[in-house]
Amino acid sequence: MKKLVVATVLSAVAIGTGAGYVASRPEQPINVGVESEACAVPRIKGNISLKTGEKIYHAPGDRFYAVTQVDADAGERMFCTPDEAEAAGWRRSER
């Protein structure tokens, strides 16, 4: 059974839903409009380097996670797991 998910965002970041992004203040519950059983709120940020074009993902706790922004128009996206990001051709940030 699929259900509409309401999530609590733990940090002030943009959350990708596949259809767009929702900005939130810390601890503010938001309706991200995701119908899923597997991953309610993707937290892995897939970013494309402006310098090299390399696809790099940032996980919560990584050094640049909080300042990384995801631009869907530039081909960047959110992932549910590191395995999903790596399967799509992205590598983890070295910092």
Characteristic terms for this protein:
95 residues; mainly beta; 4-stranded mixed β-sheet; two-stranded antiparallel ribbon; 1 helix; globular
Report on the architecture of this protein.
The chain is mostly beta strands and 95 residues long. It has one domain (4-92). 6% of the residues lie in helices and 34% in strands. It has one helix and eight strands. The strands form three sheets. It has a four-stranded mixed β-sheet with strand order 7-5-6-8. A hairpin with a 4-residue loop joins strand 2 (14-16) and strand 3 (21-23). It is globular. 23% of the residues are buried. The model is unreliable at 1-36 (pLDDT under 50).
Helix tally equals 1
Gross geometry: globular
Q: Total domains, how many?
A: 1
Specify Rg, calculated over alpha carbons. 13 Å
**How many strands in all?**
8
User: What's the N-to-C terminus distance?
Assistant: 39 Å
Q: Order of SSEs, N→C?
A: EEEEEEEHE
Strands of the widest sheet, in order across it, are 7-5-6-8
What is the residue-mean pLDDT, rounded to a whole number?
Answer: 73
Taken as a percent bin, the fraction of beta residues is 25-35%
- Taking pLDDT < 50 over at least 5 consecutive residues as the criterion, the unreliable ranges are 1-36
